[in-house]
């Protein structure tokens, strides 16, 4: 008997034993040898490799369909949120912007092979919409203090440098005092030096993070201000065109 034949026979023996155990357990579970055999045959049909692969394919197809439904809803919401950006673009630019939105939404999402970006039709601009948007933009522009934002950025940049220098000077001073201090075991001295170093590092990092947060916030406000001023010019141009027709 070859090694392969022997291995096949061992596997068949184990399979036969497993079947017998399953049938016996099912017969006891259903208190009937006939019912146990029927259930066993049902499992054997249900769990063929072909049946498993079919169920997996169906589950995958459903997941892809659900992903597509979600992506289309997210696309519609994002496109509507970008209305005032899209409405002033020409057709080519608008389609490119919509493509970018779709790409962002679906970049990490598995979709059916035939999935395509939904079409998105922008409603025509009305005078009431333009007047309302003009009011929103003017309110936003008025509320944004450009001078304060620029002063914040300048102050925070300077504070990061000054605070770091001041804290580093104080850190070095305290470490020097620890190194001169009498009556300390070397291990204790090193521990206190490390703790002092870590304390000042934390304080510097904490301050830098806060200053960077304030700078980022001010920069966002300035960017929004520029964007709103540019959009306001487009809104007023479109409004003038609507009112003269």
Give a verbal description of the structure.
With 245 residues, the chain is mainly alpha-helical. Helix content is 84%, strand content 0%. The chain contains eight helices and no strands. It has helices spanning 3-30, 33-46, 49-81, 83-86, 91-106, 127-143, 146-180, 186-243. Helix 1 (3-30) crosses helix 2 (33-46) and helix 6 (127-143) runs antiparallel to helix 8 (186-243). The radius of gyration is 36 Å and the shape is flat.
State the distance separating the first and last CA atoms: 98 Å
Average pLDDT level: 89
Any low-confidence stretches, pLDDT <50, length ≥5? Answer: none
Structural class: mainly alpha
Helix content: over 70%
State the shape: flat
Radius of gyration equals 36 Å
Number of strands: 0
Largest sheet features: none
Q: Which percent band covers the strand fraction?
A: under 5%
Strand-and-helix sequence, N→C? HHHHHHHH
DSSP helical segment count: 8
Summarize the topology.
Elements: H1 3-30, H2 33-46, H3 49-81, H4 83-86, H5 91-106, H6 127-143, H7 146-180, H8 186-243
Helix pairs in contact: 1-2, 3-5, 6-8, 7-8
Descriptors:
single chain; mainly alpha; flat
Quick structural summary:
It is built from eight helices and no strands. The chain has helices at 3-30, 33-46, 49-81, 83-86, 91-106, 127-143, 146-180, 186-243.
